[in-house]
Specification:
MAG_DAG_Lipase; hydrolase; 11 helices; Rossmann fold; 8 strands; single chain; alpha/beta; hydrolase activity; eight-stranded mixed beta sheet; AB_hydrolase_fold
Length: about 325
């Protein structure tokens, strides 16, 4: 398995750093675009790439603005941008989808993401004009609109205090530190990510992980969440788009999985074709947790079954 890294330029001069793991050309079944979470980067998904490559799928993992290899003066680490960062980031995802489709015409195209990446993936699936074959939401969450309206209030206050590019101890306390405090007997501030101490330490040791995002990034994210989780937003999903939900029932970010289960319920109510798998001991990064082999198997089985079956029937 060989990773190829390249840059894709956007109209505003931003360059998206993209990690690409091609499948063997003699066994290609599809192409996937995967979006990473907040305060991490796409190169961390090499184990996912290995599993998908074995199943015959190409994988592209772009680094979001202000993350990984997608850092510049307009988007320093942790900053999606001074203005309209959410929409630019969603449009970046749509651009990489288009690039993947153009590079691999005729192949099934699946979009997925973890945590913040799952929110961006959902927004991109609602926005893109491409015919997606599947959507994977991992370590995701769901709340009604009024929750995000209330959540925006302290974020806006902190943005006014610290500026758009400033960071906030209060925001960190309300988010990362709050999730960390829910793990009994934790030995690090990031045990909420995984039960696997080696994976937690690798995250801590990675200079491209665990940083504070800016106040503007948090405001942009929560504003975007209100839009994508609205009835109008979810109604923009194609009626027949298969959705795979993956989560941990010990994930503090999603209220121990209840947020993902709420999303499953809403999608079912809208008659979206949904498959869901939840791991009772899984924490936030289930792809890096002790259940990761089961998670990878669930993804590849779904790709070979749900997506493969849909293409055979088409």
């Amino acid at each position: 398995m060989t990773e190829a890294h390249f840059y894709h330029s956007r109209a505003d001069q931003h360059r998206i750093g993209v990690h690409h793991w091609p499948a063997r050309l003699d066994q290609v079944n599809g192409v996937a675009v995967w979006l990473h979470g907040m305060a991490e980067h796409g190169a961390r998904y090499a184990p996912l790439a290995e599993a998908l490559n074995r199943a015959g799928w190409h994988l592209y993992c772009p680094d979001h603005r202000g993350h990984g290899t997608s850092i510049d003066d307009a988007c320093p680490q942790g900053h999606l941008g001074d203005q309209d960062g959410w929409n630019h980031t969603v449009d970046d995802a749509c651009a990489i989808l288009t690039l993947a489709a153009e590079r691999h015409p005729g192949l099934p195209l699946v979009l997925g993401g973890h945590s913040m990446g799952s929110f961006i993936a959902l927004a991109a699936a609602e926005r893109t004009t491409l015919p997606l074959d599947g959507l994977v939401l991992c370590g995701s969450d769901y709340h009604p609109g009024f929750y995000y309206t209330l959540m925006r209030l302290p974020l806006l206050f902190e943005r006014r205090r610290h500026g758009k590019r400033g960071t906030s101890a209060l925001i960190r306390k309300l988010t990362f530190e709050s999730w960390a405090s829910q793990i009994d007997g934790a030995s690090t501030d990031f045990d909420w990510l995984s039960n696997d101490s080696a994976q937690v330490q690798a995250y801590i040791d990675d200079p491209l992980c665990g940083f504070d995002c800016t106040t503007e990034t948090w405001v942009a994210l929560v504003t975007g969440l209100k839009d994508i989780h609205s009835i109008n937003g979810l109604a923009s999903l194609p009626d027949d788009l298969p959705v795979l939900l993956l989560g941990g029932e010990a994930d503090p970010m999603s209220a121990n999985g209840r947020g993902m289960m709420a999303l499953e319920k809403v999608l079912h109510a809208m008659e979206q074709p949904v498959t869901a798998h939840f791991w009772d001991q899984g924490r936030h990064e289930i792809l890096n947790d002790t259940c990761r082999d089961e998670v990878l198997a669930a993804i590849t089985e779904w790709l070979g079954g749900e997506i493969g079956r849909g293409r055979r029937q088409a």
